[in-house]
Every structure is written in C-alpha cells, then in structure tokens.
Amino acid sequence: xxxxxxRNLSKNYQMGDVSIAALSEVNLEIEKGTFxxxxxxxxxxxxxxxxxxxxxxxPSSGSIQMAHQEISxxxxxxxxxxxxxxxxxxxQHFNLIPVLTVYENVEYPLLMVKAxxxxxxxxxxxxxxDAVGVLEQQAKYPHQISGGQMQRVAVARALVTQPExxxxxxxxxxxxxxxxxxxxxxxxxxxxxxxxxxxxxxxDPKIIGEAEIIYTxxxxxxxxxxxxxxxx
Amino acid sequence: MFKIxxxxxxxxxRYTRRTLLTSxxxxxxxxxxxVFIAVAGSFKxxxxxxxxxxxxxxxxxxxxxxxxxxxxxxxxxxxNPKQVKKVENILEQQPEITSYSMRLKFGGMLSNFSETANxxxxxxxxxxxxxxxxxxxxxxxxxxxxxxxxPTLKQGxxxxxxxxxxxxxxxxxxxxxxxxxxxxxxxxxxxxxxSGIVGSMTxxxxxxGYLNLKDAYQLLRIKGxxxxxxxxxxxxxxxxxxxxEVLKQKLSEIKNKKDKPIxxxxxxxxxxxxxxxxxxxxxxxxxxxxxxxxxxLVSIMNVMLMAVYERIKEIGTIAAIGTTPRKIWSLFLxxxxxxxxxxxxxxSLISLAIIQYLNWQQLxxxxxxxxxxxxxxxxxxxxxxxxxxxxxxxSTLASLQxxxxxxxxxxxxxxxxx
Lengths: 232, 418
What we know:
The complex is a heterodimer. By secondary structure, chain A is an alpha/beta fold. Chain A has helices spanning about 45-55, 75-85, 100-115, 120-130, 145-160, 175-195, 205-210; strands at about 1-15, 20-30, 35-40, 60-65, 70, 85-90, 165-170, 195-200, 215-220, 220-225. Chain A has a six-stranded mixed beta sheet, with helices on both faces. Chain A has a four-stranded antiparallel beta sheet with strand order 2-1-4-5, covered by helices on one side. In chain A, α4 (about 120-130) packs across α5 (about 145-160). Chain A is globular and about 50 Å long. The model of chain A has no long low-confidence stretch (mean pLDDT about 90). By secondary structure, chain B is an alpha+beta fold. Chain B has two domains: about 1-50 and about 275-415, no CATH class; about 65-260, no CATH class. Helices cover about 55% and strands about 20% of the residues of chain B. Chain B is built from 14 helices and twelve strands. Chain B has helices spanning about 1-15, 15-55, 80-90, 125-130, 135-140, 160-165, 215-220, 240-250, 270, 275-310, 310-320, 325-360, 380-405, 410-415; strands at about 60-65, 95-110, 115-125, 140, 155-160, 175-180, 185-200, 210, 230-235, 265, 365, 370-375. In chain B, β11 (about 365) and β12 form a beta hairpin. The longest helix of chain B has about 40 residues, at about 15-55. Chain B is elongated and about 100 Å long. Chain B starts with a helix and ends with a helix. The mean pLDDT of chain B is about 90.
C-alpha cells in the first residue's frame, strides 16, 4: 500500500549563473510500515530527497503525493501544519530544544498540533519515553544526557504525534558504532510497534543492513532499489 | 501559547548575562524617566504652589486692558464700585471659588526720612488676601522670624519688601512715609509703621509691599470701593481650565456701552513667566521619554537580532517539527515582551524606592530668591503605569523585526546553519 509517491522529482540549485541539479527525475513509492534507507556518496542528493519528502523544501519540478495530498504545492504555513500532523524528524545532531526537559521536548510537537486531552498526551509521552529507554531522564535537560540518550529522545519526539512517516537524515552519524546500532534497532522496534514508516539516510554498511528497502542515489538519481524484506 | 511563553522565558534565562544587561539598561532608562518626572514634577508643583498661593492666586480678574499695561500699575483702569459689585455677585454664585481678594495695585515712593525709593504696593484686605493666597503668611516676618499666627496689617501699617528693607535699613516698628500720585495727578503722602517684612519671590508681585486697602484709598483719595485686581482661589486647582472658561463666559456677558466686555480674566499661567519654565519641564519630560524609547528600542532590537542569529538552527528544528511561522514569530515577540515587562517592573520598583529615599532625605533647593524649598518628589500611579506600558509596547515592537526574520526562515536553510 503506497504511503508516499514521488513523480519526476527534481531539485536544482542556482549558483550564480550555473544551475546545479541536486536531484533529477526521481520516482519512488514508499509503502506504509516499511523501514527504508537512502544511501549514496556525499553529494548524491540523499539530504535533498529527504528534505523534499519531509516538506522542508520545495522541488523545482515533479510531484510528491502523501496522505492524499500534493505536498509539493503547499505554502510555508501549510507545510508546517503538514509536518506537524503527518511527519516526524530525527536529525543527525539530535536538535533537541535546549531549554526544554526531555519530557517537554517530546511533548512539544503534540502542543503544536493540539492533539488529544492532557492525560492521554501525558500517558503517551511517558510510554514513549519508557519505550525508548529514557523514562528516568525525563526531568533532565538535553545537556545533562548522553548523545545516545538525546537521539532516543529525538526518536520519541518524532513518534509522539503518531506520524505516518519518520524521516531521519543520518541519525547515527554523530554516535559511536554501538550506540548507532542500538538507535537503528530502536527505530526498527518502534516501526514494528507503531507501524510508522521510517526513511533514513546513512553511510554505515552495518546499519544499511537493517533496512528493508534500500534506495541507492548517485548524482541525484536513483541508481538502484533493493527490497530486502525477505532477507531481513 | 503557554508553551511558547514558557520557551520564551527559558530562552531568556539561557543567556542570563545578556538578558540581565539588557534588562538593566531598560531598568536604568525607566528609573531615569520616573525619578526625573517625580523630581521635576515636585519642583514644578512646588513652584506653582508658591506662585499661586503666595502671590497671584489661581485666577485674576481685571478691567479689560489692565494686564497689557500692568507694569505701569495704571489707576485709570480701576474697577469702579458698581463693576466690583457685579463681579462679586458672579463670584458668590461660583461654588468652585473658595475665596477672592480685592487688590488696589499702585506705585509710590517710600521714604525713611533719609532715603527715598520706588515701591510697588498692593492695597489689600488682609483677611481676604490671606484666605486667597495663604502662603503669603509664611513670607511675612513680623520681627520674630516667620510668623505662625496671621500677621496683622491694620490701618496705618505697611509690609515692606525684604530687598527694600535691607537697602534702606528698615525694620519692623520703623516709621516710613509713603508718597503716591493720585488718579488726577496730584501727590499725597501717608505716614505708616512697618508691621512686617515680606520675603522676596521670583515672578510678578514678588517684590511688592502691602498696605491696608483703606489706607490705599486714603492715600490715593479714592472714595468708593475701587480696585484694579481681584485674585481668586479655587477649591480644586486641577479644574483651573474649566473654572476659567465658566468665569470667562459669565464675565463676558457684562458689557459696556460700546457692547464690549468690561472685564478680563486670566489664569496664573498667563500672568507668571514661570509657566514657561513649567512648559519647558513638560517638554523635557517628553524628551526624556523619547530617549527612553530609543534606549529600549535599540537594546531590545539588538539583543533579539542576536538571539535570532544564534538560534537559526533551533528555529529550523522547531519549524521542522510543526511550529508554524506565526508561532515562531510569537516566540520571539514574547521574549521581547518579557524583557520589557521585567525591565518595566524592576525599573518602576527601583524608582519608587529612590523617590521614597529622596522624600526621606528632605532635600532642599533654592530658586531665585527662595531658599530652603523642600523637594517632595511624588509620582502618580498613572505615570508609572504609562511609562511601564510605553516600555513594554516598545520592547514588543523592537522584537517585531527579529521575530518576522525568524518566522520567515526556510527550515531547510535554517537546519543547515552552523
């Protein structure tokens, strides 16, 4: 069942008089509940693709269909609303809000979408913090916890609004190998529990091995698509 | 919105030193303005009180054209007994007028038998006069320092201005001769005993002498109840303009044979040059407020712009996770608002403490020939609230541009920022 479809998705950047194609005619279809990895060398267009899918940027041409909407045509306010309601993000540098506690960081996206009653929200946040293993750190501020714990909080934050898709751009690049592996496994576990689709980019071969579907990008185009669901 | 406010508050605490510095700047600005308003206001009020309550009264009525030639103290512009009666009838009907004093002002020569000097005099009814300008009592020395009981000005007595008494070596109890020119041009003289020395004051009438109105009539050979000035005291000084308008209207209805108004009425401002100083004080207050606005505007805008540049990536993050541009805008606006509120509240409290301290210290100052005037700074609650509101509004406005800048950041660009 298709969750997200891109058609002839392209993104060009203007550098003075020169137009540089970061992404060219990308067509892909991501199914609901899959664990998708986008790989490729630096400059291959991984981040550009994730930014476009994540409604953080607008394509130069082509379309992105998700949740029965053409999201490439939304204005900035509509894109912010769409991101809040349908998407979750995990960043390479964790990007937790430094002035909020662990609990408040996870709570923040819920407040932006005004979902549910307070008691339900509280229970959901605590359950998520428990699930990602940082329940005991809930009152701490980001600078008081480790990098691995920060990324666990980021995963909980990405999932708190029950998004259909979580986008993670190099979520393990700032973590040691063991922690990175644990984070990927956590994401996978959460995917299985919540049936949320995850799409992440990485360079780490061991982590790539955990993906169910792998898209290989080169020079802004998809060179290969591998479905490993029967192997994983 | 509460969450946005909470984040805004915590963001301010994150950069404690910067927040404190900005708040201190805003606080100093508010303190400067409020203390200035209190001190300048106190000075103004004190001086206005001195001028109106010891010389001019709140309002004065004259015959039309008298004020234009007041320096000559013309006797040909006296109000005749009939006109005085008409004015009295009107004044008796005005509940806002607590008292009035009939004056006959004229110029003369004062002699101590060895020296002669020019003198400007007020023929008064001392009871009426002291009711209308009660602080005059404090200016009159009856020989044993400033009098606590109302000084007397019986027939045959004179209060001589301080500077003249010093120059002519006159003291209470001395006999002097007063010579004046009558309305018909003839000269007459009276022998009077000094019963008081009047302290000098800055402004018109501040160096005048006083004698009993009956003596003035005798000296000037005036038979009827003629005066050339009626000073009025209101029960509420704040209603000066309203009372002035009412009186002006009533008096303008009385006309001469040429159908022109007989009387003119003036507020103290029209009669005293101090009103210009009072206006300058008001103008200075406005300038001080403008400076405060500039301080707040520049400091808050500067600190908020720095906050935006330092937190670009964070703005990208909150935008990515669903914060709308409007909420990002609100976040930065609230930070400015909180800085303003903090500065306004702290500044107001410190100002009140300083004003209290100044009152406790009983600071004195001199103005012109007046010494030991006690400064009693007070500030109206409306002034504190008004100034605090200006600061809060300007703080918010100063955050507007940085807030718009933050809300317009593209999340993808902001997230790339290092």
